[in-house]
Write a structure and sequence with these properties.
Elements (H helix, E strand, L loop, with lengths): L5 H8 L12 H131 L3
Length: 159
């Protein structure tokens, strides 16, 4: 689109001489008036064309801006949806972690209780083993005593 030099066009419509306004004859005024009207109409036509072109470019720019805005709005909505899903997944993961921590605490408590019970059972087993050893020792002593008694009885009895 060409730029219109308004001073140049105005000089064509209203000539400015060095000595001021020139005297025009009526015939020359009529011819000059027709040329001036044609130039003015051309100027108006060019201005209207320039305005239409600016309006067209403006409409295109507005349409592009709307398209970009709509695309950004859709991207934002998708990002918000992804963010909401991520937040929900995070909340679920946090709840699962809390459940796992509670299960670990319970398991640790159960393990400590089992270790305590195992230690008690081991102590009972050791005590039982000691009693068994003591009983075995007493049984051996009793067997030996019985054997001595039987030997003494044999020696005392006539054959």
């Amino acid at each position: 689109m060409g730029s219109v030099d308004l001073n140049h066009v105005m000089d064509e419509i209203i000539p400015r001489g060095d000595s001021g306004t020139q005297a025009l004859t009526p015939a020359r005024q009529s011819a000059r008036g027709s040329d001036d009207a044609t130039a003015a109409l051309e100027l108006v036509s060019e201005t209207a064309a320039a305005i239409r072109e600016l309006e067209k470019q403006s409409a295109q720019a507005v349409a592009r801006a709307h398209a970009v805005a709509n695309a950004l709005k859709e991207k934002l909505e998708r990002a918000e949806t992804r963010s909401e899903r991520a937040e929900a997944a995070l909340r679920q993961a946090e709840a699962e972690v809390e459940d796992l921590i509670a299960a670990i605490v319970q398991t640790r408590s159960d393990l400590e209780m089992l270790q305590s019970q195992t230690a008690a059972k081991e102590a009972e087993l050791e005590a039982s083993e000691q009693r068994a050893k003591d009983a075995e020792c007493r049984a051996e002593n009793a067997d030996a005593a019985i054997q001595r008694i039987m030997d003494a009885i044999r020696t005392q009895l006539p054959v």
